[in-house]
Every structure is written in structure tokens, then in C-alpha cells.
Amino acid sequence: MKKQYFLFQLKRFFTNPKNIGLFALTFILSLYFGLVSVPNRQLIEKVDPYAINGEYRRYTLFLNKATTKIKEMQESKNTHEVPNEGYVNAIKTYPDILNFDKHRINGIKANNWKEYVIYSSKWYKYVDHLIFVDENQQFLYPVQYYQNDNYREDGHFAYQRTAHFYDALAKSKQPLTKNIVEEKTTSQILQNSISGWTTLILILFVVLFAADIVTRSQILFSVERYPIKQKYYSLD
């Protein structure tokens, strides 16, 4: 009886017009997720050697210029000349950033992603502190965060999340790859999706798929105690 009941319910499940429609909708959403959503996912905090190299060169040139100008000012002994704020800020902040960038570049070149995540975490924490805590006007979050009035909070959250994510990777004993660092592996993509709208869709589909089974089971009770009274109850 149990086997017959199971096969009967299984047949009804796959031939139910509503479920067939849900199967088709699930297939379409799966195609959209695999072919459109995932490939078009925009990463703001990604591994970008060109941006890091560009920052390293710009900061090095400006720091050298700032050091020269401040030295000339000190040697001139002109008490009325005020040091340029940008020069003072560069001498104070750029050495640490350049040190982090140097290790990040070396990590990318050598495929040493452990070195990359360690010093990238330090970079994110340091720059975020300059922007969010010190309110240093010489530094800004990426322009992608400036889409609404919460840009400081959005940038701060993103930098802190990235820094702590890199800290976790640095402690991991598993070998790291660029895809892992950029959260592009299958498991990471699924995890990020489940934390968003995908969960609601899955719950909705489960409810819709289970609706007929639950209500039908309430009508038919237990197959161990009662026969399937198909004659008296509509199963559609």
C-alpha cells in the first residue's frame, strides 16, 4: 500500500498542470541565473593589478615631490610659508599605503594569494579608517558607492566586509586562487545568492509544490489506517 500510494502521489505531482508550469518557470529562472545574472555580476572590490600599479606609481611620484618641497621649505627657513596640506598628508599616509601596494603587486605577480589577501586587508582597513574615521578629504571610496545618500556607510561596510573576508582567507589552510579571492567559485556564488532574493524564490516554490501534497494528505489521512478513497474525494 505504501509503495502504491507513493507512486500515485508521484504521478500526480509530475502531471499536475500547476507543477508543470512551475517546472518551466524554474527552468527559465535557472537559465537566467546561469547565463545572465552570474556573468554580469559586477565586482567593485576585485583583484585589479592595473589599478594597484597605477596607484603605486602616482603615490610614489607625489610622495617624492612632497618630500622635496617640504625639504626645500625647511631649508629656506621662511616662517611665513605654510606647507601644502596635500604634501603633509602624503608624507603622513602614503608610505604605509605604498608598502601595502608593493606586497599586493608582488602577490599577484607570484600568484601568492596569501600575501595578496594579507596586505589587501591591511590596505582596506587603513584607507577605510582614513575616510570614515579621520574624514580625510584626500581619500574617497570608489565612485560606484556614490549612488545614494548613504555612500559613506555603503563604502565603509564594503571595505570592512572585504577586509574581514580577506582575514578569513589568510587564516585558511586551503590553497587560494584568484576566483576564491573574488568570490567567483560555484559555492561562493550560491552562498551570495542565497543571502538575497534567491531564498525567497526557493521558499515560494517549495510552498507551491507542497501545497497539493499537504492538502491531499489531510484528506486521505494515513495509508496505514485508511484506504485511498479516490472514489469520494477529488485529488485535483
Give the termini distance in whole angstroms.
21 Å
- How does the helix and strand content classify structurally? mainly alpha
Please estimate the helix content. Answer: over 70%
For the biggest sheet, the summary is: none
* Strand content bin: under 5%
Please provide the ordered H/E string of secondary-structure elements: HHHHHHHHH
Number of strands: 0
What Rg is obtained from the alpha carbons, in whole angstroms? 30 Å
Average pLDDT taken over every residue: 79
Shape: elongated
How many helix segments? 9
* Low-confidence parts: 221-236
Transmembrane segments: 20-38, 194-215
Keywords: Membrane, Transmembrane, Transmembrane helix
List the defining traits of the structure above.
mainly alpha; 236 residues; membrane; 0% strand; transmembrane; 9 helices; transmembrane helix
